[in-house]
């Protein structure tokens, strides 16, 4: 850590961030009016420290859950509806059918379809209300909708019921997205209620699901701080997190909002020491609009982000109690070494990264931004097992996530201070690096491993050798490129242009199916999705083999063309 970095990290204090955490712990931030109140508070606190704020006011399409319950056999079961479920305030009745499923064991599987083999399910669930384990997430609700169910009841793992969102549409829908809006009611119940409902389902019972929903366009506030760098002010790192939360949402995401506040304060005071700029945003519509705020920003500033953004850094659920480890960290391959070094230096911990999930506010893959973090520190696996905790998607692993129990006790001052410094050093080094700290050789290596895995699964049914040759050629070109950086034959200015533009080519190739400037559904995206059908040939069976081969020919064309474009850029 150099003198500038030490001085800037030394300027971090808990006074401003902890005051915001305490304030946010006193009021809910679900309804847009309450979210706007929180945005105004962030703006006022920043301006108190002399930090200028631009307040955007997007119109967002949001879904606000209200009361819910399930009635069966003369009993009433507590329930919560996910955002975007269909209103059923007058009640939806039908026969209950139970479809067993495993609760997700890792964050990476939380948003997947509930049941892998659905071939024989349509006859069982069509016209009925389905009961199944899991969170009321897009994968579960979409799957049973496709099979003809008229309603879904998700059984949460524990005593508490978790809020969520069930749409596969990413952000505010456009005309092409509208057909994918959820068409059936869905609710979540706890484990005890779920077990009782399972017995009723076995007896062929009728149930009635009630869910009150409010849906429409809402004027939302979105504060932005743009801290100009001294040398390349037009280039910037986008640092961001969501402000709307379920209930008071201390660990998800008042601590993140407070971290952004403190980093904006410190970076603004030290703006003369920044080479590039830092753009800090607080998002509305994360919980009730499937990342509607960050998607609005991605859409409305797309061309500027394309031209000038260096990286996207997501700040969600830092500073939570017992969160001693940096595991399950989202980081794109090219960022792994850089971020791991930062975490080791600040926290003295080994980082364990994984492919970013199709979740959080990763609303910039379609543009092609190198991105890292989403959640930060979390509990060790052993600590979770000792407490009997199941997998959740935030709060440092605390199962208060997305419940009314995510209160002030979930935050930890010492861990918050450490996590702020992790984020701050990463952003600072990204902004001040002479050569942008992203290693595309790692990404090329990931592509080679992915293609090899797909080829193994496809066997002799499809030949991915052309894609493999293109990936290996890219890796060789990158080796020469980085060697040129080392020996000085490639100047920093040239290197940085290439590194930034490689992101625009390779990230959409690895993380999107849609064309650029559109948003893929909020369901998991496999690596190199244009080739992913190669891994599914056994599941698809002989009848669909010809169609799968056709898809793979087209997909391989996309991959090879993109890799050639990347090589041409390097050359």
Notes on the structure:
One of its GO terms (molecular function) is carboxypeptidase activity. It comes from Martelella lutilitoris. This is M28 family peptidase. The mean pLDDT is 96. Helix content is 40%, strand content 17%. 53% of the residues are buried. The protein folds into 3 domains: 269 residues, Zn peptidases (Aminopeptidase); 152 residues, Glucose Oxidase, domain 1 (3-Layer(bba) Sandwich); 131 residues. It starts with a helix and ends with a helix. The strands form 3 sheets. It has a 7-stranded mixed sheet with strand order 3-2-8-4-5-6-7, sandwiched between helices. A 6-stranded mixed sheet has the order 1-9-11-10-12-15. The longest helix has 26 residues. With 571 residues, it is an alpha/beta fold.
Short description:
The protein is α/β, with parallel strands linked by helices.
Tell me the layout of helices and strands:
Layout (H helix, E strand, L loop, with lengths): L2 H8 L4 H10 L7 H17 L5 E3 L2 E14 L2 E5 L8 E11 L23 H4 L3 E5 L4 H9 L4 E5 L30 E4 L1 H12 L3 E14 L2 E6 L4 E11 L7 H20 L6 E8 L8 H9 L1 H7 E6 L14 E2 L5 H12 L5 E2 L16 E2 L8 H7 L25 H20 L7 H19 L6 H23 L4 H20 L25 H4 L4 H26 L1
Helix pairs in contact: 2-7, 7-12, 10-12, 13-14, 14-17, 15-17
GO molecular function, one term: carboxypeptidase activity
Protein name: M28 family peptidase
InterPro entries: Peptidase_M28, Peptidase_M28B
Features:
single chain, 571 residues, alpha/beta, Aminopeptidase, Glucose Oxidase, domain 1, 3 domains, seven-stranded mixed sheet, six-stranded mixed sheet, 15 strands, 17% strand, globular, Peptidase_M28B, M28 family peptidase, Peptidase_M28
């Amino acid at each position: 850590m150099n003198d500038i970095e030490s001085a800037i990290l030394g300027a971090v204090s808990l006074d401003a961030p902890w005051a915001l955490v305490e304030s946010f712990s006193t009021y809910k931030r679900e309804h847009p009016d309450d979210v706007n109140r929180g945005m105004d508070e962030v703006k006022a606190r920043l301006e108190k420290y002399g930090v200028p704020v631009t307040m955007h006011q997007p119109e967002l399409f949001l879904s606000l859950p209200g009361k819910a319950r399930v009635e069966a056999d003369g009993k009433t079961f507590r329930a919560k509806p996910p955002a975007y479920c269909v209103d059923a305030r007058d009640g939806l009745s039908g026969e209950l059918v139970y479809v067993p499923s495993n609760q997700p064991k890792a964050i990476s599987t939380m948003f997947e379809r509930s049941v892998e083999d659905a071939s024989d399910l349509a006859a069982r669930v069509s016209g009925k209300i389905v009961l199944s384990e899991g969170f009321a997430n897009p994968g579960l609700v979409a799957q049973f909708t496709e099979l003809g169910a008229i309603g879904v009841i998700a059984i949460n793992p524990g005593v508490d019921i978790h809020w969520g969102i069930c749409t596969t549409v990413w952000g505010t829908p456009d005309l092409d997205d509208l057909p994918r809006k959820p068409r059936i009611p869905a609710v979540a119940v706890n484990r005890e209620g779920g077990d009782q409902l399972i017995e009723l389902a076995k007896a062929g019972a009728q149930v009635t699901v009630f869910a009150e929903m409010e849906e429409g366009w809402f004027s939302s506030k979105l504060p932005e701080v743009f801290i100009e760098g001294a040398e390349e002010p037009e280039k910037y790192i986008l640092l961001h997190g969501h402000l709307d939360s379920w209930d008071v949402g201390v660990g998800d995401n008042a601590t993140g909002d407070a971290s952004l506040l403190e980093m904006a304060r410190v970076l603004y005071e030290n703006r003369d020491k920044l080479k590039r700029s830092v753009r800090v945003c607080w998002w509305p519509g994360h919980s009730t609009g499937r990342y509607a705020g960050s998607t609005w920003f991605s859409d409305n500033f797309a061309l500027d982000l394309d031209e000038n953004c260096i990286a996207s850094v997501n700040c969600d659920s830092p500073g939570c109690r017992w969160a001693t480890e940096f595991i399950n960290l989202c980081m794109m391959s090219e960022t792994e070494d850089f971020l791991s070094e930062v975490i080791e230096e600040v926290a003295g911990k080994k980082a364990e990264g994984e492919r970013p999930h199709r979740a959080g506010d990763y609303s910039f893959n379609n543009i092609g931004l190198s991105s890292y973090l989403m959640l930060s520190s979390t509990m060790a696996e052993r600590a979770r097992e000792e407490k009997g905790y199941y997998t959740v998607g935030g709060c440092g692993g605390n199962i208060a996530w997305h419940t009314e129990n995510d209160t002030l006790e979930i935050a930890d001052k010492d861990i918050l201070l450490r996590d702020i410094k992790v984020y701050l050093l990463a952003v600072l080094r990204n902004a001040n690096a002479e050569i942008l700290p992203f290693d595309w050789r790692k990404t090329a290596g990931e592509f080679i491993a992915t293609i090899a895995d797909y080829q193994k699964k496809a066997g002799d049914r499809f030949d991915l050798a052309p894609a493999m040759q293109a990936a290996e050629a890219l890796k060789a070109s990158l080796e020469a490129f980085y060697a040129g950086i080392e020996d000085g034959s490639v100047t920093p200015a040239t290197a940085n242009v290439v590194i930034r533009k490689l992101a625009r080519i390779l990230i959409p190739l690895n993380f999107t199916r849609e064309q650029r400037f559109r948003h893929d559904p909020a369901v998991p995206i496999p690596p190199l999705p244009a080739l992913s059908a190669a891994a599914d040939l056994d599941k698809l069976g002989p009848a669909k083999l010809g169609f799968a081969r056709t898809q793979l020919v087209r997909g391989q064309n996309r991959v090879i063309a993109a890799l050639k474009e990347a090589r041409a850029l390097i050359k």
